[in-house]
Amino acid sequence: MKLIRNTFAIAAVTIMTGCASIVGSPDQSVVIHSTPSNANVTITDEKMVEVHSGVTPVTVQLRKSDGSYFGGKEYTVEISKQGYESRTMMIKSAPNGWYIGGNLIFGGLIGWLVVDPLTGSMYNLSPDTINAALGESVSSNENGESEIKLVLVEDVPGNLRDKMEPIGNI
């Protein structure tokens, strides 16, 4: 009788949970690095709500689901530093292997269609590590906007004239 009760309890737990919810979590760590370091990082979600603001290197916890049925999150990561080109990257959610394969074997329809889609554990965020190389800006004005300045050769300092190269046949 005890064996039947234990078997029934295990079956009930398996039916009432999703496989991805058992082994996953609704949040995920994302690591952000930049070259050079100490760059400003702003992360906004798909609704343009700022979810993080800081400086590289940083590890942030991001939600994998927007809380709606089958609602995976998407994030825009903007990395900037004065004197360097800014970078914008996307972090997107996609169903993970535990949701797809695990529910096929263990979780059944309840896990596949109800539990995992509502908890967000069915998703993985990708990429989970960002390494942004910020290229040096050509020039920037006092507002931090990139611009190109044209000057006469006579106005170029002597130590920089030696480094000049022709760009075409003039």
What would your notes on this structure say?
By secondary structure, this protein is α+β, with helices and mostly antiparallel strands. The chain has one domain (about 1-140): Immunoglobulins (Immunoglobulin-like), CATH 2.60.40.10. About 30% of the residues lie in helices and about 30% in strands. It is built from 4 helices and 8 strands; from the N terminus they run ααββββββαββα. It has helices at about 1-15, 20-25, 95-120, 160, and strands spanning about 25-35, 40-45, 50-55, 60-65, 75-80, 85-95, 125, 130-135. A hairpin with a 6-residue loop joins β5 (about 75-80) and β6 (about 85-95). The chain is elongated, with a radius of gyration of 25 Å. The protein starts with a helix and ends in a 9-residue tail after the last helix.
CATH topology: Immunoglobulin-like
Assembly status? single chain
CATH 4th-level superfamily:
Immunoglobulins
| Rg estimate, integer Å | 25 Å
* Count of discrete structural domains: 1
CATH architecture: Sandwich
> Widest sheet: strand order?
3-2-5-6-7
Q: Give the CATH level 1 class.
A: Mainly Beta
Structural class comes to alpha+beta
Which percent band covers the strand fraction? 25-35%
Helix content: 25-40%
Order of helices and strands: HHEEEEEEHEEH
What's the mean pLDDT score?
A: 74
| DSSP E strands, number | 8
Q: What's the N-to-C terminus distance?
A: 96 Å
